[in-house]
Amino acid sequence: MDAVKGAKAKRMPRAVREQQMMDAAVQTFGQRGYRAASMDEIAELAGVSKPLVYLYLNSKEELFTACIRREAKALTEAVQAAIQPELPADEQMWAGLKAFFRHTAENPDGWSVLHRQARTHGEPFAAEVTRMREEIADFVTGLIGAAARQGVPRASRREADLADRDMAGLAQALVGAAESLAGWANETGGVSAKEAAGMMMNFAWTGLGGLMRGERWSHR
Predict the structure, then answer these.
(1) Residue 217 and residue 9: Cα distance in Å, rounded?
(2) What number of other Cβ atoms are within 10 A of residue 115's Cβ?
(3) Nearest-CA neighbor of 100 among 132, 122, 148?
(4) What is the mean pLDDT of residues 3-21?
(5) Model pTM?
(6) In terms of Cα–Cα distance, which of 98, 111, 24 is closest to 71?
(7) Using a CB cutoff of 8 Å and minimum separation of 24, what contacts does 169-174 make?
(8) How far apart are CA 181 and CA 177, in angstroms?
(9) What is the pLDDT of residues 79-99, one digit of tens each?
(10) HEC profile of the chain
(11) Rounded to whole angstroms, what are the CA distances from 215 to 151, 156, 162?
């Protein structure tokens, strides 16, 4: 049986074999956690020998890092692919949020790797997720700026303009809220991507609308 498995592995193209190992690793890390997951489990799930896993990726740490990078890239690309730049800023954000929640729901193990495992096991894993988060936050910052330009009459724009730091801070808050909501939606079950995106739009965009009109909350 092992000989047959080895023969099949040898005939498999390298790219396909790597993808198979990465799929198995994401599933194992996502469901078992980084520390509890073993290379033996990953190799068995991938249908290859453990030495072969080490041949492609030298250590458990390197394999986990590769999983983080792959899942972060897939999530970022899914969000960016959903955006149509010619649409109004709110429609762009709506499309991006739907893509975000759809991807996290359809890839729960990958989202667990990014949202739970990578963040709780220190550097350099957390740094990999931070890079993805900053890329998405930069994109959201641009949408907030576009909304300010599109939604405010020229005569009142000076009063309603948001400082760059304000837009960056709001983007960070929105990304953090979306991440928490995705975690809640996946754990709760029965929450569609469209429903989750609607919750975020009601929470975030309605408030942003007031800011675009120059409204500010102040402590009395």
Answers:
(1) 62
(2) 20
(3) 132
(4) 67
(5) 0.81
(6) 111
(7) 170/141, 170/144, 170/208, 170/211, 171/137, 171/138, 171/140, 171/141, 171/144, 172/137, 174/140, 174/200, 174/204
(8) 6
(9) 999 988 888 888 888 999 999
(10) CHHHHHHHHHHCCHHHHHHHHHHHHHHHHHHHCCCCCCHHHHHHHHCCCHHHHHHHCCCHHHHHHHHHHHHHHHHHHHHHHHCCCCCCHHHHHHHHHHHHHHHHHHCHHHHHHHHHHHHHCCCCHHHHHHHHHHHHHHHHHHHHHHHHHHHCCHHHHHHHCCCHHHHHHHHHHHHHHHHHHHHHHHHHCCCCHHHHHHHHHHHHHHHHHHHHCCCCCCCC
(11) 13, 12, 11
CA distance linking residue 95 with residue 155, whole number of Å: 30
In this prediction, residue 158 carries a pLDDT of 45
Q: Which amino acid, one-letter code, is at 161?
A: D
Residue 129 CA to residue 182 CA, distance in Å, equals: 15
Of 144, 162, 160, 163, residue with least CA distance to 152: 160
**Between these two residues, 209 and 101, which has the higher pLDDT value?**
101
Is residue 164 scored above 60 in pLDDT?
yes
The pLDDT, as a whole number, for residue 3 is 47
> Which pLDDT score is estimated for 170?
87
Q: How much is the pLDDT for 124?
A: 79
Longest dimension (CA), the chain: 77
Phi, psi of 204, deg, nearest 5? -95, -50
